[in-house]
Protein 1
Amino acid sequence: MSLDQNPQIDRILHKFDAVEAELGSGVVGDAFVRLSKEYAELEPAVKAIRALRAARAEMDSVEEMLHSGDAEMATLARAERDELEERIETLEHELKLQLLPKDAADERSVIVEIRAGTGGDEAALFARDLFRMYQRYAQLHGWKVEVQSASEAELGGYKEIIASISGAGVYAKLKFESGVHRVQRVPETEAQGRIHTSAATVAVLPEAEEIDVEVKNEDIRIDTMRSSGAGGQHVNTTDSAVRITHVPTGLVVVRSEKSQHQNRASAMKELLARLYDMERQKADRERADARKCQVGSGDRSERIRTYNFPQGRVSDHRINLTLYKLDQIMAGEGLDELIDALVADHQAKLLADQGEADAA
């Protein structure tokens, strides 16, 4: 049975037609939002199915020409058949990608946490540079970046910075950025021109909705504290800082900006994202054990990428890809090439797993 004749294909087409008909009936409100989202999710697969079926129908016509008895027409048909075979192969691959299981979090916004690792002041400066890279990348994609909290280092940069990035499909693009990022360069503080190696860690958490994570009131402890800062009339005058502790897991989130209300909302948002990420990682580990391969965003304790400034290169160690486009990548403009390669590698592994499952 050819791929486009699989029963799953007919179910997708039937569902798409039903959703399209409902949208055309004039639904409004929440129903319209839900149907529009479903339509957008189904449309790429439907387009791939229809394109593949059209190419196969065209191939049937070409085969008829080959056996028509007309020598000139058969010569033209052979050339067209070769082209069609390549197109069908490409369309089948595209359809297989569309039929892969979707990560439910791919369309979500994220919380990005960047922390200076080994390397002292230089690590903090690198953490700043990474944040600017993601900030510019987000701007290029039309996403909104909002800093939730930041701890600045003495010589500049960040010991830690946490930001939310909001928009469509953010997690799908950034989920492979979690891990240890290493930099090799001459620090701004180095007078002798020696190359130093330092690192920063990046964690990308999909934002959770309340329906994703059940948090009982008795499992939460909220403490208010006095904020500390650089001085001024507002410092140590109000208990605006908020610390939320999730008792069952021991997770603690602290916010210390001026507004206690905003601190509470921001801290709760991060706590939900962390709990949701814990559940996702647990499920990923279970699937990995069952299939004997890693599924998900990877082990954050491992070094994933090196940025070598003297040579102008960036190397992603997970896929053995090196690009001599460091300036473009740090500016956010060249990051898509790295991310697209990581997505393609992930999809190839899923396809291989699916092929093994089908063979079994």
Note: The CA atoms of residues 180 and 201 lie 4 Å apart.
Protein 2
Amino acid sequence: MNLRTKIVALAVAPLLTALLLVAFAVRHQERDLAERERALTERTYMAQRRSELRAYVDMAVSVVRPLYDTGQDDEAVRAEALRRLQALDYGDDGYFFVYDLDGRSLMHSRQPELVGRQLWDLRDSQGRPTIQQLIAQARQGGGFVEYEWRKPSNQQMAPKLGYVTSLPRWNWMLGTGLYLDDIDAAMKGLDQQMNHNLTTTMLWIAGIAALGIGVVSATGLLLNLSEHRVAESRLRKLARQVVQSQEDERAHLARELHDGTSQTLVSAKLLIESAVDALERGREPVPSALPKALQRLNESLAEVRGISHRLRPALLDTLGLPAALERLAAEFGEEGAVRATVSILGVPSELSPDVKTALFRVAQEALTNVHKHSQAAKVDIALAFDHGRVRLDIRDDGRGFDEEAVQDDPKSGIGLRNMRERVAAIGGRMDVASGPGGTAIVADVPALGGEAA
């Protein structure tokens, strides 16, 4: 073995060792992160389902509560209550059921053949006494039960999470449930995506290894040992960047997880309003805690809607980017002393979802920077449509900043870099000009988006 071959071998061996260690570390970190994300996603799904079920059952109870509170227990009153419950429906597989506490089915809107049958001894495929568990939970004041039941949409047995409560004077158990097979499917899809990402990462590392070996082998005849050390250092730096890119991707996915609770709050708000209205119609004094609870619920609902709007405003998808920008400017003006105006130039044309989202996020980030840093008195937003392109122009009269210094500092300028990346990703260009007289941000993109050059 000649000296050149030895130099190449000495260069390749550490490179392969380093990349194998990097591959092992990435694989371990990816698996660990995937398991944590899976558990977090499953907990999020289940928490959302539990909240939905509570809201549905509370709504059903509120429907029959006026009849129940009359104190009448005759068959006509009970029949009317069952009729009202049977009329309630949600989704393809959402329904309510009523059993007496002895296990006899009184109402089942999707399986009427069960009505009147004694189902106390019914068990699912795992041997669990379904009706007995539900009734036991209802007797304890209500709660959740997992069991199997036939899904109306496909007539297949599927796992289900039920929530039940009791109406003791009528000897009733009232409940509903949500099927969990979609969560199982989502978890399988998430596992497949994680495996795909892991395979892609390993292929990238393998490709990098192959490329490194090829480069070292091809240049080993010309490079001396010191040049090889420089190349090896660069490859190790690239490997660290691969690991960091995976962490960044996982962090991005974690930030995108969103569990909305607005529907639950709306349902609770309607129930409280219904209770207040029922008490007032009955000329009974309204408990002082009830209006306070309604007020706090309204405040919570407004806060949740505000957060949801900032994450993804509904106007952006329904009425388009101009309306969303006008709403954003109005909210910005209401929050502080800076006045924001929006002007639309040209004839608005159809924008792709990517373009609408990117330009809205640019405007959102720009207004955030104005609020935090500019000390401006006003900000003007102009959206111009012209021959298949759209231009977003945001200008303020603040104190400005040193753009070059901000870009060179890794701890600052993150917002500007994110804005540039968003615009570049859809084939556009963003220019920033700032000085003592204010700051101007101009983003010019194709109306239907495109790939960055």
Note: Confidence is low (pLDDT under 50) at residues 242-260.
Protein 3
Amino acid sequence: MRAPSVIILWAALVLPTAAFAEIQTFTATHTYILGDHDSKDEARQRCLLEAKRKILEQAGVYIESASEVKNFELTKDKITSFAAAVMQVKDTKEDAGFQQGHMTLTLMITTTVDMAEVRKQLTSRQVDTGVREDVAAQKEHMKRLEAQLEAMRKQQQTPAWMPAPPTNDISTSVVQTLHIQAAQGDAEAQATLGFSYYIGYGVLQDYAQARRWLEKAAALGNAEGQFWLGRLYDLGRGVAQDYAQSAKWYEKAAAQGHASAQDWLGRQYLQGQGVPQDVAQSAKWFQKAAAQGYAPAQDDLGIAYFSGLGVPQDFTQARQWYEKAAAQGYVEAQLHLGWLYDMGLKGAPLDYTMARQWYEKAAEQSNAEAQFKLGTLYRFGAGGPKDNVRAYMWFTLAAEHYQLDIERYKAEEHQKSAEKDMTPVQIAEGKKLAREWTPRK
């Protein structure tokens, strides 16, 4: 609490009394879009907080400009704190309405700053010699918090197909900052906080809390909030599974150019989940997301061209889109590209060497089907030397990673078949390789 005193005294020293008008009036308006679970009182409180924040910014800028305290390199937070001490709310006006299918509450407040009171407080306080060090320390602390928060927000935008971040990469201070900003109606903070609860990033995973904050962000038109709220409904996490609701929120985010939402909306049109089945619409959304470089959509568009769903069947186009996604490390596209070369279709001529290369990339990411296919190529020497030990290793790993019993049985049968052509030493080596194998990310 020592910094305001320096602002006050410095301002008093550098500014003649006549430079201030006696009474300054400031007004600010804020509109809050109510979520499904918001009460009017809660919305009013949030509107008031946000409107006051805007007023404080205006008053702080005025005091800073009028007193030239900016020359002393003080933080704006300190100036704003001082503005709050000398400001009085004189009038509030409230108006209800509707926007984007939700009730809205608009609040306008009028405040005054008595510059005579400013001068009085300025001259009544004295400089604390430790203020400069305190301000520098606070500034550095805020920089660290902002850096952590920005890193988290970037992680929030990480494509849904990539691994979730570890739970210990965000500090308690950042979580607290997010809560404060979200409670003040900051849609980006609400979306980030909702995402954090969704995946358990810096907080305990809590789908109910995720829904709460994502609904608020989505109601304010935040695309990230809309997308992740759609995922909750799509998967039935913290809510009853509802494809119509997930499609609704995907579409809102997709309309804003959100690539993940565009891809998932395309999948819902493909399956007829929550929307009428429409392969043309499906392909349209895949194309929009794929054009943004979103790997899952590039793979989905490759499948559309491979199957002729919503677009003319074209194996060359399928290969090109698979290649774009595979180059980003997207495992499904690597598997599909291996299939194309393995089958020798027009647009991707038969090439077991290329098939082996792409299968291996997918197999190294624990894809069971790629592991099985790669084992088959090693078993028969297609695309490279025959190697029963490697084949045995990949069949073993495929059996471990397959989810369905029938698929595990298939891998185990091939494993047994390979054993017939192997010595006990080779079998032991194959088992050892399988035990020591680790996936590559």
Note: The longest strand covers residues 87-99.
